[in-house]
Amino acid sequence: MPDTASSSTLRLRKAMDAAKAALDRIPGAGGQESVMDDIRSASSGLPTLDNLTSLTFSHVQYTDDGLFSKIMAYTTLSPLWIICAYGGIILNGRDIKVALMLAGQLLNELLNLVLKRLVRQSRPTGFLGDGYGMPSSHAQFMAYFATYVVILMYRREVTPGSILPHIFAIGSVVWAALVIYSRVHLYYHTWLQVGVGAICGVAFALVYYWVIHSILRSSGLFEWLLDQPLVRRLHVRDTETINDVAKYEWEMWQEFRRSRHGKKD
């Protein structure tokens, strides 16, 4: 059996021959040799397969045995959407509450990295995923996110008749459960690894929220921070004391709308 380098060279030679044959079939095509020379020049430094790696943060492998595994592969990548959502919401809303949630999410990832270095437990396979598997970073990430969302939805009494807090809370928990299951289904983690990761994520979210709101917020730190010139120029706000931000912003918009029409009249 040819080694990796020989196999790569053979595939490259076949591809070049196929490209030359395709050019020869084009009526009136000229400069075939120059095109082939360009291909040879570009492929002269082609690395062998054993020298290639992938960015595991955005790379997932799955068994090609049906639609469900493909759905699980997309599901296991969905935490990337949360990071993008954090950035968009913070840039658009300038709310310190969301920035604090993101800071906790990043600290939670740092904690997971430390725990993996301490436990040093391998993954179920040696070819799926890099690094250690205990605890699962995906499980810890999603457990923190879902727990924090539930806290934000129910930290104060829900407005009577409002179903959005329940939808967001249930949706985040279901999403987290699907991501956690996908890690086991795709053989990146064991049930024990995702279970420990989920417990760590929930525990960290509870402790972090308590520290932020029972110690730091009550100390007046955030009020002081919001009064700093640079923070004021960036229009950073704190909506923690507003029960329904969407309703509050809508009422402010209605007031602005009425004042604008009043000036026109």
From TrEMBL:
Xref: Gene3D superfamilies: Phosphatidic acid phosphatase type 2/haloperoxidase (1.20.144.10)
Segments passing through the bilayer: 71-91, 166-184, 190-211
MF terms in GO: sphingosine-1-phosphate phosphatase activity
Tree of life domain: Eukaryota
Domain Phosphatidic acid phosphatase type 2/haloperoxidase: 98-209
Transmembrane found in the keyword field: yes
One cellular component (GO) term of this entry: membrane
Membrane topology according to the record: Multi-pass membrane protein
SMART domains membership: acidPPc
Subcellular location: Membrane
Pfam families assigned: PAP2
Database matches in InterPro entries: Dolichyldiphosphatase_PAP2, PAP2/HPO, PAP2/HPO_sf
Keywords: Hydrolase, Membrane, Transmembrane, Transmembrane helix
Name of the protein: Dolichyldiphosphatase
